[in-house]
Structure formats: C-alpha cells, structure tokens
C-alpha cells in the first residue's frame, strides 16, 4: 500500500503543478506552487488518501515556527511523512514521500494535528477557492492518469 500512496502523491504533485500552470484556483498559493501551497495541497492529498485507503491513519500536521511567525503543513499516513511542497524551502530539491520523519520538526515545533472531518470537510479555504471544485479537478486528472496507465 505504501508504494500506491507514494504513486498517488507523485500524481497529485504533477496535477498541482499543472493546475498552477493553467491558473486553476486549486487552493491558496496554488498559482505559485509549491510556494505557499502547503495547507491546501496537504489537505486535498490527505482527504483523497483517507477516501481511497480508509484503513490508514491519516493526519494533517500544522507546524508553527513561533519566532518567525511561519506555518508549514504536511501529511502523516500510517506514521509516514508526505510533504508535497517541501521544495519551496532552499534545502529541499524534491517532495518527501513516505519517510519515517521530517526535518521540519526542529523549525516548526509547535504542532496542531488535524484528523477526520477537520482535514477536509471542516476546512474553509476562503476567498475564491472552492474545495469541491478543486477536488473535482484533481479527481478528473487522476482518472485520466489511471486510464492512460491501464492502456500501457
């Protein structure tokens, strides 16, 4: 199952990049993805994982760096870290996919853990961002990716 979730994370990353290029309003920050896109990308990824793998324990982690007043979000799936936007930071060249820990715990060390309906259903992305339209966009391209994979 880990390899399937890793593949899903890679596919979502590509879809988020495509949405950014197309100027589709996925979530706050999506026009400059991966910069400032961590909350929305993490919540959508966690929601989709929860729907596809209901036996998994899925959480969105909001880390807060108090001295710099900065936040960063990532996802835990069965205690493994998924950070689809960590490459917005200088020390990272690619996303973190299914690793046992995250180097961000030392910087973003005040943690809020979101689970269940707080991940997606109770999320209000505000402004012009429509989480259901985002989900529809993402699911559409996941279906296309799945169909093209089956053809090959």
Structure description:
This protein has 3 helices and 5 strands; from the N terminus they run ααβββββα. It has helices at residues 2-22, 38-52, 131-151, and strands spanning 58-65, 70-77, 80-83, 96-99, 110-114. The longest helix has 21 residues, at 2-22. The protein has one domain (2-151). Strands 4-3-2-1-5 form a 5-stranded antiparallel beta sheet, with helices on one face. β2 (70-77) and β3 (80-83) form a beta hairpin.
Distance between the termini: 21 Å
Number of domains: 1
Report the uncertain regions.
none
Largest sheet: 5 strands, antiparallel
Question: Taking Cα atoms only, what radius of gyration do you get, to the nearest Å?
Answer: 15 Å
Structure summary, number of beta strands:
5
| Largest sheet strand order | 4-3-2-1-5
Mean of pLDDT: 91
With helices defined by DSSP (H or I, 4 residues minimum), what is the helix count? 3
- Determine the structural class based on helices, strands and strand pairing: alpha+beta
Share in β-strands: 15-25%
Classify the helix fraction into a percent range: 25-40%
Question: Looking at the structure, what is the overall shape?
Answer: globular
Task: Describe this protein with a few key phrases.
5-stranded antiparallel β-sheet; 152 residues; globular; alpha+beta; 3 helices
What's the gist of this structure?
The chain is α+β, with helices and mostly antiparallel strands. 38% of the residues lie in helices and 19% in strands.
